[in-house]
Amino acid sequence: MSTEFDPTRPIYLQIVEEVKKRAVRGQYPPGCQLPSVREMAKAMEVNPNTMSRAYMELEREGFISTRRGQGSFVTEEVRQVNEERQRLATAVRDRFVAEVRELGLEPGQVERLLRDIREAVR
Amino acid sequence: MSTEFDPTRPIYLQIVEEVKKRAVRGQYPPGCQLPSVREMAKAMEVNPNTMSRAYMELEREGFISTRRGQGSFVTEEVRQVNEERQRLATAVRDRFVAEVRELGLEPGQVERLLRDIREAVR
Amino acid sequence: MSTEFDPTRPIYLQIVEEVKKRAVRGQYPPGCQLPSVREMAKAMEVNPNTMSRAYMELEREGFISTRRGQGSFVTEEVRQVNEERQRLATAVRDRFVAEVRELGLEPGQVERLLRDIREAVR
Amino acid sequence: MSTEFDPTRPIYLQIVEEVKKRAVRGQYPPGCQLPSVREMAKAMEVNPNTMSRAYMELEREGFISTRRGQGSFVTEEVRQVNEERQRLATAVRDRFVAEVRELGLEPGQVERLLRDIREAVR
DNA sequence: GTGGTCTAGACCACC
DNA sequence: GTGGTCTAGACCACC
Fold first, then answer.
1. Helix axes A11-25, B78-103, angle to 10 degrees
2. φ/ψ (deg, to 5) at C119
3. Other beta carbons less than 10 A from residue D62's beta carbon
4. Tell me: the pLDDT tens digits for D1-19?
5. Residue B12 approaches strand F within 7 Å at CB
6. Could you tell me which residues come within 8 angstroms of residue D41 by beta carbon, excluding any fewer than 6 positions away?
7. Is 0.85 topped by the overall pTM?
C-alpha cells in the first residue's frame, strides 16, 4: 500500500483495514507498538489528520490502544486478532464461492481450481 | 445487473464482461441470438450507443457476430467460449490465492477454507 | 455490369458509358446492330424507359443511330469510337498520375509500378 | 480535404485513409504529433466524436498511438508506414490495370499511356 | 424490425 | 490543454 487508495471509499477506513491485515498477517504482533501517526502518515502518503482518524477508529474498535505520550499498541488480545483473521478469511471464501457460481463451473472444473490453489499456497 | 455499474470503469467494457459471463454460464448458448442493441440497452438501463459500442467490441474480439438488419449472435465456436471460461476461472483463482496470501493464513486454515468451498459449491 | 449501378448518379448515364466502353473494347464494332431497347433493358435489369433514355442520349451524341422499325446501330464513324477510346484512356491515365502524386512515391517506386503494369497488361 | 466526403462510405473510415495518406506522403512523419482530435475535427469539418472514432481505429491498427492528456502520435515504426504506402500503391496499380483492360487497349496504346505517365510524374 | 453512422453536447481523467 | 466516455436523438441501409 502507498498512494493507491480507492477514491470512492473513505481513505481512513481503507487504512483501518490495512492495519488490521498487517496485524492478521503477523506483521504487527499482539502488543507491539505501531509507528507514530506522523510516521505512518508519511509512509502511506496521507495527511496526518487522516491517519489520526484511522487510529481513533481502530481504538474505538478495541483493536489498538493509545497511551498518551507513549504511542499506539496493537491489542494484547490474541482473540481479537484471530476474530479479524476469521472475518477476512470468511469474506475471501464467500467471494470465491460467489464468483465460481457466477461462472457456472462444473464440479470437475472446481476441483481443478481447488487443486491449483492448494499447490499455490503450499 | 441493471443500473449497478462500477463508475470507475467504462460501462461498455463492463457490459462486454457481463455478456461473456452469461455466455460462459450457458445463459447465451453458442450461436444463439442476443437481444437487440436497443432491447439490451433498455434492460441494462444504458444508452443504445453505449450498448452498440459494447457489441462492437464483442464482435471485434470474435465473441459475437453481427449481421446488419438481422441481429447479433454468439459465436458458434465453443472453443472461444471455453477459453473465456478458462480465463475467468483463472482470474478468480489467482485473486483468491493473492487474498489468502495477504492474510498469511496457515496451511490448516487454508485447508478448512477449501473444505468449506467444496461443500458450498457442491 | 448488371444491377450494380452507382445509386448516386443517373442510371441512364451509366448505361451510356457502359455502351461506349463496349464499343471501344470492340464488343460492339462500328456499324453493328445493338440489342433492342427491351432486350438490353432486360439484360441490364433496368426499366425499358431508362434504357430508351440512354439510347436517345447516345443518338444525340452521334454515337449510335436509330432507324425506325429496324433498330439501333453503332456509328460507322471509326473516328468517333477512337475519340471515345482516347477520352477514356486519357481519363484513366490522369487519374493514375493524380493518385501516384498523392502518394508521393519516389521515381524508383513509380518505375516499379510501371514495370508491373507493363507485365500485367501484356 | 474538407467537407468533401463520399456520402456512401463512413466518414470516419475516409478520415482514417486520409491520415494514412498524409503519413505516407511524409506530411506526418513517423513519431510526429497529430493535430488534436478537436483541431482535426474542426479542420475537416466533422464532429469531434467522428474524429475520435477515426483516431481510435488508427490506434487499433497500430498506425498511431494515443497518450491520454498528451495527444496522438504517428507510429515510430517506419515499416508500418512503408507497408501502407505499398498497399496504396498496389491498389492504384491494380485499378489502372483493370481500367486499361476494360478499355481493351492495344499494346502500343498502353505503351503511349505509360510514356505519358512517366513524363508526368517526373 | 435490425444495426451503423453522425451530430451535439456534457462530464471526467490525465497533464 | 489532451483524449475517453456517455447520453440523446436523428437518419440511413438492410431485412
1. 70
2. -65, -45
3. 10
4. 445 899 889 999 999 999 9
5. yes
6. D47, D48, D50, D51
7. no
